């Protein structure tokens, strides 16, 4: 059971890190690694860090925030290694990207709210659906998006986001992040299904 928890946590860290880095690469048009060897080396090291981190968390009983710190570190190193300038500023892309990514999966978190389940155990039961959905999207992107990624690599060397496009993405992502945080905090205040549905409909 311990090994299963370690493997599941490490896979979860890798999953979230991969989604964040892919968003930075293909939505923000951040530069990727110059060679496939560098890409494989980076994600191999990231997988190793995820595994070692979850082992330490299991042995020493660190809080779950420790695992979040690993995800932030992997994303930060990705930006630092792929950017040629303004690396520190690039790390702050994490916040708008988190807003977009979390909002996509937030409807699964709303499942227990709409169904009238509010205890922690029933809420955790929905988390595997989020993992399945995320890995399905990643596999679809990997297999079905090969031609699209190839065209983007060929034409994207001269393509970068304009200032207004970047500002639009940043503001939208931060807004979604704040909105999700507010909804998650309000969710804990409801004790009945009717209260939760009324809140959602009232906005």
Could you please describe the fold and organization of this structure?
By secondary structure, the protein is mostly helical. The chain is built from ten helices and no strands. The protein has helices at 2-26, 36-60, 65-82, 87-91, 94-115, 120-124, 127-144, 146-155, 163-187, 193-202. It is globular, with a radius of gyration of 19 Å. The chain crosses the membrane at residues 6-29, 66-81, 93-118, 124-146, 167-186. Keywords: Membrane, Transmembrane, Transmembrane helix.
Structural class: mainly alpha
Largest beta-sheet details: none
Shape: globular
* Proportion of residues in β-strands: under 5%
Low-confidence stretches: 199-203
Order of helices and strands: HHHHHHHHHH
How many individual β-strands?
A: 0
Which helices and strands occur, and which strands form pairs?
Layout: H1 2-26, H2 36-60, H3 65-82, H4 87-91, H5 94-115, H6 120-124, H7 127-144, H8 146-155, H9 163-187, H10 193-202
List keywords for this structure.
203 residues; mainly alpha; 2 domains; 10 helices; 0% strand; globular; disordered C terminus; membrane; transmembrane helix; transmembrane
What does this entry show, briefly?
This protein is mainly α and 203 residues long. The chain contains 10 helices and no strands.
